[in-house]
Amino acid sequence: MPLLGAALIVRDEERELPLCLESLAGWVDEIVVVDTGSRDRTRELAAAAGARLFDFPWRGDFAAARNCALSHMTSEWALNIDADERALPGCGAPVRRQLSAPGSDAMGQRLRLHPGSGQDWHWALRLVRCGRGLEYTGLIHESLWPAIVTACGVVDDSPLELTHTGYDGDSAAKNARDLPLLEAELRRDPSRVNCWCHLAEIRFRQGNLNAASAAWSEALRQVRLRPTPRPDDLFAFVGALRDPLDDTLLREAETRFPQAPQIIFLRARWLIEQGEYASALAALDRLAGLPSGGEHIVAADLRLAGEWAWAARALCHFRMRQFAESRACYAEAAALAPEQMEYRVKQALCERLEAGA
Fold first, then answer.
1. What's the fold here for domain 4-164?
2. Which of 5, 133, 213, 330 allows an S-S link to 314, with CB 3.0 to 4.6 Å?
């Protein structure tokens, strides 16, 4: 039996697919591509790369398409990868060594996913052992976790790392596709917190603030109904804590996620609003000391501990009339975000105030 295959579901991916398949060349034993209705050269490119191609008419169900791909795998393990993702160079050999090592009965493996767009990497369950009856669930934000939990399966950590390019650029078309799927999935299973949060984000970007607020409130309600907390509950708190910041809700979030960089940064913002600048600086220092990635199951914006943290430090020092320190912090922020002219302007202002102090 082949050791490892790649499973993809695609539609109109002629621009992204070749680089994805190129990143898999030489270390996966088979590639299964399930096409859900491409009208471009996707099918031709997949066939030219040696993939086994199958048709699956799109019916508004990502899990069904994923499961179709898994059903055609002949390998012991399947890597579920999207066309706009790439395996990092050098991962293939260590991945195969780990999968072929004796003694492990893991049903799945997590890998490091680099989402792009300035986001830190996070763990994602993408490798699954075939032939164990494990299937994806969910019309959207489909997941293997429910099947593995039901089977009391073990999940290991893989040395494999993927980069994702699909979050960049205009999201209007993706939102138009996702919105009806989210609404249908929440009718099917209203307990899905990540779907409520995704729905809220779309409504927020559309300018429908009341609908966004209602969706985040429902996400929080579902979080509090859960018997066991989950890492992606963090999304609900981060969304609901948009302006104005609420100290009571922030304290609840801190209890649940004491190491989450998003929550630590929001606490620093709240302290600045209260005029507690020394305490805000202490929170920002704590943020800088967090490890990258680690056990963060959800991606964190790298600006939280970078550009935004330096700008927040600069503001604290400025309001404390510590102009030299403020100038230095604005310089750090400007180095990380040279396109933000406001940092240069504020840096120059601090220099003038420092000279006149």
1. Spore Coat Polysaccharide Biosynthesis Protein SpsA; Chain A (3.90.550)
2. 330
